[in-house]
Specification:
The protein contains four helices and four strands, in the order ααβααβββ. By secondary structure, the protein is an alpha+beta fold. Strand 2 and strand 3 form a beta hairpin. The radius of gyration is 23 Å and the shape is elongated.
């Protein structure tokens, strides 16, 4: 009798479903990771808006481990953020940074191209920008 109870909880698993199990699990994990990234960016942007007078949040992709995932899933991340921040500019962009005389990194993305040869080491950072100005 106990074998009947154990067997009744098992679900028939056709061959096609068996073949797609890993892909389904991988997709669930991907969606979960996209949502975790979106949640983190959302919370940081809202916190910035609540605690400062700035009108732009920039999420810089710094971890070499996260870059491939973010870039591969950028469309999903941006579309989700655009839903969460309607009427705001949400975009993936690159920012050129250079160290100032005081040692602080400065955004030189919009610097006149003629001045670029006079800048020392330039770092290019990939980021997601949310602008509500």
């Amino acid at each position: 009798m106990s074998n009947d109870i154990q067997m009744s909880s098992l679900i028939p698993m056709p061959r096609d479903e068996m073949r797609s199990l890993k892909a389904k699990d991988d997709e669930i994990a991907r969606i979960y990771q996209v949502e975790a990234n979106v949640r983190s960016i959302y919370q940081s942007a809202v916190h910035l808006a609540r605690t400062s007078t700035k009108t732009q949040y920039i999420y810089t992709i710094t971890s070499y481990r996260e870059i491939p995932f973010i870039v591969t899933n950028m469309d999903d991340i941006l579309s989700r953020l655009r839903i969460l921040f309607p009427d705001c500019s949400v975009q993936f962009t690159s920012i050129k940074m250079a160290m100032g005389a005081d040692g602080a990194m400065r955004d030189i993305t919009n610097l006149d191209p003629k001045a670029m040869p006079f800048i020392g080491q330039i770092q290019i950072k990939e980021c997601i920008s949310i602008d509500w100005s």
